[in-house]
Specification:
The structure holds two protein chains of two kinds. Chain A is an all-alpha fold. Chain B is an alpha+beta fold. The chains are: A mainly alpha, B alpha+beta. The interface between A and B is medium-sized, with 35 and 35 residues.
Amino acid sequence: MRIDQLQPTPSVAEPLEIPAELLASVQRHQAHLAELIVSLRAAGLGEDVVDASIRTLVDSYADDLTVAIRAMMKAAHHG
Amino acid sequence: MDKALLLDDDDGRVAALRRLDVLDTAVEEPFEKIVTLVRTVLAVPVATVTLVDRDRQWFKARRGMEQSETPRAVSFCTHTIQQRDPLIIENALADPRFAESPLVVGPPYVRSYAGIPLRTPEGYNVGALCAMDTRPRRFSPADIAILSNFANIVCDELELRLIAQVDHLTGALTRRGFVDQAQREMERTLRYGRASSLIMIDVDHFKRVNDTYGHSIGDQVLKQIASIAETTLRPCDLFGRLGGEEFALLMPETSGAAALVVAERLRNTIADHPMTLHGGGPIHVTASFGVAELSASFNTLTAWLERADTMLYAAKSGGRNRTQLAEPM
């Protein structure tokens, strides 16, 4: 799985492969985002608010994931 | 361990919190965005990501709360972490636990509170994601569900940092990440009888930078210093942020004398480089450096770090903006 394959798709994302060590954590995050979408809709929030909220979170997470993966790639050199 | 016992195991809980390496860290955008969203979506004036340390609560992110930390004794969240379920307080003035809290009788004048425990993978509650209002309020099941979902997102972000061991402000390794990798390098170096050197770096008068220009500027300075350091790195070098304004650079296959040259080059580059800042004019900072080559007499990584740190202290004492190299041992 790559960063640009996260759902929803991040606004800007490098096609970096997600390392095995992060995969479970990333998949949990994806599930949590899906649950948040359901909760926001169930609370009657407009689709634009839901979209904007989720976009904020997924873009932020994609940035963090990129930093983390690059650091892990470098750390693998020292493994 | 039994889940109920975890709630009573405060020593274990604090240890789990310390392992996250998040206390007293810089403002980070993901957490700021989450509290901003909580405020907007739940229409509350105050939202925080709170971490409950042994004797204090510290806010990793906060909106509507002026204090960056408070004593644990006055904290709502210290009660939240004592349970698995959310803590809901509809009217703080009617609850004897909180009616006379400084956070209720004084700013931000909390009247209602909803807190979701932040749980580590081991099961410890290290803090809470909180929404607070300045009027009595009933939080609906929909509000609680949304806040719980946001709390899961906070935990995801904390977990990402823990696994990746990266300082998200500077891109350097966290202290824990650096120590883990430095330990392996040290063992490898000693096993094969190679040379390796450690450089400790500390920004001079950094408190003054924060006090004069604000923490946002201070963070930009740290990012630029880290960026300068990283331009000199080889792929085999390790670069970590050990504390607020303290960094470490481990250089395998490098003698103390060679590391001294690198340190001096870095020192001069930092001193000569005006820090270009968003929201402010350029400022100049300097840094002090302590260098120590690995010696077989160092039994532990801690001993090696301490040797380099002693040299750093000598550089500071000697007037700052200088480098001190340890004598071979």
